[in-house]
Amino acid sequence: MRIYFIRHGEAEPFAKRDFDRHLTTAGRIKLHKSFSTFAKTIKGLGEYKIYSSPLVRANETAEILAEYLKKDVEIKEYLAGSYIDEVLEDLKEDENYILISHEPYISIWIRELTGENVIVSRGSINLVELDLKEKKGRLFKNIS
To answer: Helix %, strand %, coil % for the chain, to 5?
Structure first.
C-alpha cells in the first residue's frame, strides 16, 4: 500500500478561526506547480483515493489536487487530528491513498509508521510504502 501524506498549502495567518483559514494566492500557485508535476509522476502507478481534513485550507488543497488527478475528494474528520490507529482503521491493504492533513499530525504519523523524523513543510508530499498488517513502512521524503 502507498500513502502519500500531503500537508496543506500556505494559508492565511491566524487572524480568524483556525478551521476557516483559506489558502493564500501564493500558496495556491505553489500547489498548482507541485501538483502538476506530481500528477504526471503517479500516472500509471495505480488508483488512489484522496482523503482530506475538513479544515478549509486542507480541503482547498485537496480540490486543487483533485483537478489534476480527475478524482473526487472524501472528507475525513480524523485527518484534522487523531492517532495513527484511527487513520489506519479506515484504510484497506489493497488500495492506495493520498491523505491531506496538518502538522504536527503528519510528522507524528510518519514517525510512528517508519521510525523516521521528518520536517513536513506546507505543500510537501511524503510517500510511505506501508505494510498495513504490520503497521510498518518505508519513507520517501518530500517527493514533490
So the answer is: 40, 20, 40
Q: Which residues contact 76 (CB under 8 A, 6 or more apart)?
A: 51, 52, 53, 54, 90, 99
Pairing of strands 125-131, 136-140: antiparallel
Confidence (pTM): 0.94
- Average pLDDT per consecutive 10 residues, the chain (144 residues; last block may be shorter): 97 79 95 96 90 97 97 97 96 96 97 95 96 95 72
Identify the sign of the CA torsion 83, 71, 4, 135. Answer: positive
Residue type, 81: G
Range of the domain at 122: 2-140
What CATH number is associated with residue 21? 3.40.50.1240
d(CA 49, CA 71): 8
Tell which residue, 128, 127, 124, has the closest CA to residue 144.
Answer: 124
